[in-house]
Specification:
The chain is mainly alpha-helical and 152 residues long. The chain has one domain. The chain contains five helices and no strands. Helix 1 runs antiparallel to helix 2, helix 2 runs antiparallel to helix 3 and helix 2 crosses helix 4.
C-alpha cells in the first residue's frame, strides 16, 4: 500500500531527466590549493625536526592538518557524490606526495628508498580517501557552516 503521495520506503520518487549540478569553482580549485597547502605544511614540519619529541609532535600536527585539508577537498566535491569526494581526496593526497618528496630532497639532499616512497604514496592515498570520505559525510554539516554553504 502506497501512502503519502507516492513515497516508498521513506524516499521520494526520483525525477526523470534530472542532471547533476555543475561543479563550482571552489571544487575545481580545492584540489590544487589543497596540494599546495599540504606541501607547505610538510616544509614547515621539516624545519621543526630537532629532537625526537619535536619530530613526533611535528609529524602528528602535519598529519592532522593534512587530514583537515583533505576533508575540505572532499566536502567541496561532495555535491557530485560520495565517490567523487573520495577520489578527490585521494587524488589530492597522491599529487601532494611527490611534491613533498621534492621538498625533502631539496632540504636534506638525501635520496629516499623507493620502497619508502611507495609506502608513503599508498598511505597518503588511503589517508586522502578516508579524509575525503569524512569531509563528505560526518564532517559535512560542520564544514558547511565553516564554508558558509547551505546544506542539502
Amino acid at each position: 500500500m502506497r501512502a503519502r503521495g507516492g513515497q516508498r520506503n521513506h524516499t521520494l520518487p526520483r525525477k526523470q531527466g534530472s542532471t547533476a549540478r555543475p561543479i563550482s569553482r571552489t571544487a575545481w580549485l580545492s584540489a590544487p590549493i589543497g596540494a599546495v597547502v599540504i606541501v607547505a605544511l610538510a616544509a614547515a614540519a621539516s624545519f621543526a625536526q630537532s629532537t625526537s619529541a619535536v619530530l613526533i609532535a611535528a609529524s602528528l600536527l602535519f598529519s592532522l592538518c593534512e587530514g583537515v585539508v583533505l576533508a575540505v577537498v572532499g566536502f567541496s566535491w561532495s555535491r557530485r557524490g560520495l565517490l567523487a569526494a573520495v577520489l578527490a581526496g585521494a587524488a589530492t593526497a597522491g599529487v601532494a606526495a611527490p611534491a613533498r618528496w621534492e621538498v625533502s630532497l631539496l632540504r636534506f639532499s638525501q635520496p629516499l628508498q623507493q620502497t619508502d616512497l611507495l609506502v608513503d604514496l599508498l598511505v597518503s592515498i588511503a589517508w586522502g580517501a578516508l579524509a575525503g570520505l569524512a569531509g563528505a559525510t560526518i564532517l559535512r554539516p560542520r564544514l558547511a557552516v565553516l564554508m558558509r554553504e547551505e546544506q542539502q
